[in-house]
Amino acid sequence: MLDKGFHDVPPGAIATVVTHLEMREKPDLRPVSAPDGISLNFVTSPSTDWYRDLYTRVGGHDWLWFSRLAMSESELSAILTDPKVEVYAIELDGHAEGLLELDFRQDTECELAFFGLTTRMIGRGLGRFMMNAAIDHAWRKPITRFHVHTCTLDHPSALGFYQRSGFTPIRQQIEIADDPRLAGLIPRDAGSHIPIIES
Ligand SMILES: CC(C)(COP(=O)(O)OP(=O)(O)OC[C@H]1O[C@@H](n2cnc3c(N)ncnc32)[C@H](O)[C@@H]1OP(=O)(O)O)[C@@H](O)C(=O)NCCC(=O)NCCS
Question: What range defines the domain where residue 66 resides?
Fold first, then answer.
């Protein structure tokens, strides 16, 4: 149990507050239609190159997403080819601009593992369209719990957006990780809202 008060973050690391949220039954959805030229498509056996590119464009620069970039080729490939992991892409005129990943590997549960749009697509109603699809696909399976976590590196609207979607916060944690910019996983100018402290 961490003592209350301030805690030093080691040089070369970043600290975030992670909020875990869940829903225990399917909420009522407010239907929204896909804007012109937009579709959400299931991606059959995504290649690791395709996935890393979309993951980086969605989360790598602005939100310091790095967990999937730190994985070996075989680790990532094992996840992407697992029949219990479903990857969907928001596509604009055939080009992927959003990532939705549902993980059913835990029996009777679904994790909203990754959810996000490229920067230029944010704030156009697409998040709600994609969330409706996420909730629909998750609850089509015999699950009793749909869960997600978000952290203070993510878009500042994400936590409120998830709560408006029917998720309830149930737990918070502090995560300390090596700064992915110093590890060379993402460019040094990424995540300008989080300072790099080297020493
Ligand atoms: C989280 C995220 C997907 C939300 O997407 P978004 O584009 O901001 O979401 P929307 O614009 O659909 O939703 C915001 C609200 O504004 C409304 N809205 C905004 N612009 C709109 C428009 N042009 N037309 C219709 N509705 C619009 C939506 O209906 C929605 O209202 P509601 O929540 O009451 O339904 C997006 O911020 C994102 O990708 N962030 C970066 C990645 C990230 O941080 N992901 C979370 C990690 S856990």
Answer: 13-178
